[in-house]
Structures are given as structure tokens and as C-alpha cells.
Amino acid sequence: MATNSKVSLLLLLVGISLVTFPLLAKANDHELREIKMSLYFQDNSSGGPNSTVLPVVGLPGKLWTFTQFGTIYVTDDPITEGPDPTSATVGRGQGIFVTASLDGLYAHVSFSIVFTNEAYNGSTIQIEGSSKQLEAVRELAVVSGTGKFRYARGYVTFETYYLDISTSYSVLRCNVTVRHY
Questions:
Q1: pLDDT at 3
Q2: Is residue 107 a contact partner of residue 85, using CB atoms and an 8 Å limit?
Q3: What is the pTM of this model?
Q4: Is 11 helix (H, G, I), strand (E, B) or coil?
Q5: Which of 29, 72, 125, 177 could form a disulfide with 98 if both were Cys (CB 3.0 to 4.6 A apart)?
Q6: pLDDT, tens digit, 9 for 90 and up, residues 5-44
Q7: Contacts of 159 (CB under 8 A, 6+ apart)
């Protein structure tokens, strides 16, 4: 009788371990990871047919400019691996921003980095916050993500890498630090 109890206990322990160990292994597949990357937004706000940033509404009787309170812009910038516009495409920066302070120094930003490259194709990172437009470095929050960046949290910084005022073309370096599962 004691032998049957020992065998039953042993079988029970083996059964529990067969169920538990695969669950623990799967849990390790979902550990929090941190990724850092630098991306380059190719920004064309000339107003011409190749513009990637356009004002869509503003205050009546006022110029629709980046520093005019109430001006809303829509953006669809190509994002590349390097600062050169011919470097490999990573995705698109799609969203809106609005000049949200009376003095024109701050814009409220809400947009997605939509990845099209092989490594993250179809995944997104959602960015939102108040941007100090005229600062050398502007920091915004990563508030979410999809695909490989599901449950993402973190921050991004933007720096103007290149600016040609005569053509309204700029390259913005976006340094991304994101934690995700």
C-alpha cells in the first residue's frame, strides 16, 4: 500500500512538472525587452506636390504657420535608416500635430511610426505629447505599440539633423528608447 502511494505521488509530481515547465518557458518568451534605435524622418513642408507635412486648418484671417496658435498639420514622412533620403526605408511617420500654445512655442503631437521594413513590418509605435518646437532636442512619450511593439512604453527625442529653409526640407533624427514584450 505504501508503495502504491509513493508511485501515485511520483506520477502526480511528474504530471505537474510536465504541465508547469512549458508554461514557465512560455512566460520567459514574454519578458520585457528594451530596444534603442535611431531613425531619420525625411520632412518636406514646401506645400508642393511632394510635401509630407501640410497644414489642414488654422484660425481664420491668420497665416497657417508652425508657430501660429491653432494651426493643425497632418504628416506622412518617410522614415529611413540613415540621414540620406536614399538610405533604406524603415517606415512612415503618420499623424497630426497642432500648435497648442498661444505663444506658438509648443505643439501637441500624436502620430505613429508605421514600420514597413523586414524586421518590424506591420508593427507600430504610438507617440504623443507636447513638443517644444524651437528646442534643439524635443522629447515625447511612447504611449503604446502594436505587433512586435505590443504594450510598448518609452520615449523618443527629436533633433533637427539637417534644415534647408529655402526648400522647406529637413531631416529629423528620432532616437527611440522603447520597452515592450
A1: 61
A2: no
A3: 0.82
A4: helix
A5: 72
A6: 665 655 544 555 555 444 444 445 578 999 999 999 999 9
A7: 136, 137, 138, 172, 173, 175
Strands (E), 45-88: 53-57, 72-80
- Round to whole Å and give the CA distance between 170 and 66: 14
User: Tell me, what's the pLDDT at 6?
Assistant: 61
H or E element that contains 47: none
User: Could you give the CA distance from residue 108 to residue 97 in angstroms, rounded to a whole number?
Assistant: 5
Where residue 154 falls (left for φ over 0; alpha for ψ -120 to 50; beta otherwise) is left
DSSP single-letter state for residue 88: P
> Please, which residues have CB within 8 angstroms of residue 170's CB and are 6 or more apart in sequence?
43, 45, 160, 161, 162, 163, 164
Cβ contacts of 160 within 8 Å, gap of 6 or more: 136, 170, 171, 172, 173
Measured distance CA(153)–CA(46) in Å, rounded: 33
The grid cell for 170 is: 529637413
* Residues lower than pLDDT 70 in the chain: 1-29
54: left (phi over 0), alpha (psi -120 to 50) or beta: beta
Q: Which helix (H) or strand (E) holds 1?
A: none
Please give the pLDDT value at position 24: 46
Copy the grid coordinates of residue 80. Answer: 529611413
Asked if 173 contacts 83 with a C-beta cutoff of 8 angstroms, the reply is yes
